[in-house]
Amino acid sequence: MPTITLLGWLHTILGVFAILIGFYTLAKNKVIQIQYKSGKIYLFTTLITALTALGIYHQGGFNMAHILAILTLLAILVGVSAEKYKLFGNLSPYIQVVCFSGTLLFHMIPAITDGLRRLPIDAPIVNDIQDPLLLKFYICFLATYSLGVIMQISYLRK
Question: pTM of whole model > 0.90?
Answer without folding.
Answer: yes
